[in-house]
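for the record, two folds in this file. i put them one after another cuz i was lazy. first one right below, seq on top, structure tokens after. the second one comes after a little note so u can tell where it starts
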Amino acid sequence: MELCACKDVRHKSIEECVFAPYLPANKPEKYATLCKEFDISKLAKHLMGIEPSLRHLYFHAEAHLRDPVMGITGLILHLQRQVQDLKAELKIAKRDYMMILEENHRHQHLMIRSPL
């Protein structure tokens, strides 16, 4: 099994490390992000009891480092704006598609009615 990135949190075996499934040795930036945002030894003790998803904590920590004021809320608001923008673009694309279909239908109808 690959070693965990949290080499300074000492465990007798890799199976004992609560971070091992989430912090592989080839992703040290994830561990560094958690260390910047949280007390890693307290986090390890906390995880021993409940073992929540570290991915959520990593995203929370990363968002807070990028935007200390809004944190994860800022990311959520940004994603909600993107969804709204994409919905508006989709509505426009559907309208344009319907206009093209109507134009093609009118053109075909005129071709059928007009004598050669």
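(here's the note) second protein begins now
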Amino acid sequence: MTPRDGVTTSVPGPDPGEPACAAEPSPYPRPEGQDRYTISEVAAHTGLTAHTLRWYERIGLMPHIDRSHTGQRRYRNRDLDWLDLVGKLRLTGMPVAGMVRFAELVRDGDHNFPERQRLLEATRRDVLTRIAELRDTLAVLDHKIDFYSTAASPSERNLTQ
């Protein structure tokens, strides 16, 4: 983790050697000591639908998911870590194609760290721009709220005239 612009950042990934997600705990806690999950358990844990999880796998956003002897998907903790990152990337506004590209780079191996870094830095710049825009918008809203909280209502204006 490195603090930058007052923001602490962390980049989790599916690789065991990469740091775990340092974000707030998931609203859907994992069962203690478990490392195999069905698609319905993952859906309950992440808040995503089973359809979305299958779609993520189909478009290459998810790495290969293990299967049971009956063909059912069996997710692991590393898959849940990856889904946490994908959720964060979604919140940044990164297009699905960008997320899929990042997933491809991760699967390709460690030799492309600079390209991954460039992709994440570009996304970070976009997030900072959005934060600045939202702060400006918040300032306008605060100004309007202050105006309306101090302005007399029409019925009060009639009484004082």
